[in-house]
Amino acid sequence: MSVSGNAPSSQSPARKLRVVMAQLDFLVGDIPGNARLVIDATRKAATEHQADIVVFPELCLTGYPPEDLLLRPSLDLRVDEALEEIRGADLGPAIVIGAPLRHHGLLYNGAVVIERGEITGRYFKRFPPNYQVFDEKRYFAEGRDVLTLDIRGIPVGITVCEDIWKDGPVEDCAAAGARLILNLNASPYDIDKQASRKALLERKSRENTVSIVYVNLIGGQDELVFDGGSMVYDHSGALMAEAPQFSEGLYPVDFICDHHCQPVSQSLPEEPSLESNVYSALVTGVRDYVNKNGFKSVVLGLSGGIDSAVTLAVAVDALGKDRVRAVMMPFRYTSSMSLEDAEAQANALGVQYDVFSIEPMYDAFMATLAKPFEGTKPDTTEENLQARLRGVLLMSLSNKFGSLVLTTGNKSEMAVGYSTLYGDMAGGFDVLKDVPKTLVFRLARYRNTVSPVIPERVITRPPSAELAPDQKDEDSLPGYDVLDQILNLYVERDFSAEAIVAEGFDATDVARVIRLVDINEYKRRQAPIGVRITERGFGKDRRYPITNGWKSGK
To answer: Has 411 been annotated as catalytic?
Structure first.
């Protein structure tokens, strides 16, 4: 479908236009609730911001990603009912919303323009992505047409998310006379994403001499986090307005439209540090997962180590101290330092704190296992039993009190299998699942600049699982400075073993790390989901067969 309006003549006076970017958090599957959110936000944009146009994120009616909900037989009916409710709501501004749309039997990722109760335009996304965490081609057909239309007398083009990353849609809108392009997005966060978006928008707006309004979803959806960061670029490629990341709200931008639609410049938010940005992503992911799934509270094992310390701080910042419970479960190998530091952090954050020794349970299990274990020597079996007893305690508290168990494993550990199935992996959500260990240390330092809640010794002591006397992580792993670099090259960038060695790493270390990554896929398949913050996390991003004969090397 291609709809083109009449552009104002060169003699027409400049028109003023106010666009409100609705950077909001939608619940996947709640189509009626999302429709009401659209209506309420539009009314608020009208009364508080005198909006002419309100732009919402991609697939806001269903939430993103709706996955196989798109295959439900009642999808079309529910979407149609929601659109009818919005049309009948007597909204003043024109609105642009994202929704799945069926046309000639095919389903499209679409955008709908509604003005004065009428649908004045429908657009079908031309480039549904099928890489990393995206599998839109499983559900959506590819659109083929351009949509430009007059909204409040201004020629406006509509595109959806991936369309702006490809050649064609923006160029076609500009060629059809659009002076302003509205781009609806559900673009998930990763550490480098906002910089990539800015570079792209700068180039696209400048090359096509058209202003672009980029509106992004916000909030957590399972392992994905959407960071907002909605932006406006003018026709010369200058950034004129930017909504803060991880901040829900309605953000108005004024335009003066004659030969171009020139946005009025606004003060831009301060560029956040990497640590601040990642920490905000973790808080957002935990808050939305817990709240959207209806958990009353969370519980986690607090060991006195850095991973559980950062996890506890994130949980409290996401949910408040009254909804967080920390449990220390000491054993004979637990140091007095760990006991002291765990209690100090729990007190600093004001959470409920309990100490339950696993010693009696361990002794009971070992007594039962004495006969089958007779004649064997202690090994990782006894170490894993400690972790599994702690998992049983935490899951029992979860069942009794309706609390979600937060696990505390980081990406480095998950990569090499330095974790225990049904032990420290037992739980519902892993806050640090995609956070390399070296970054965990940086996050601890960052959090203490906000307020000192993590004891210094937790950050500076050598990491240890404390499952054996004088145990240190680096007894069985390369140092984390080395390990994390190898993992980045292998897991996130797909370097071969030979290519990693060519980067200057020890061949023995590389072979060992790659082998550990490869043989522990079966563990990761059974691990809780967790917040994705890198360009390639375990789960949706990286899907390798457990059973395979692939040999590392070239």
So the answer is: no
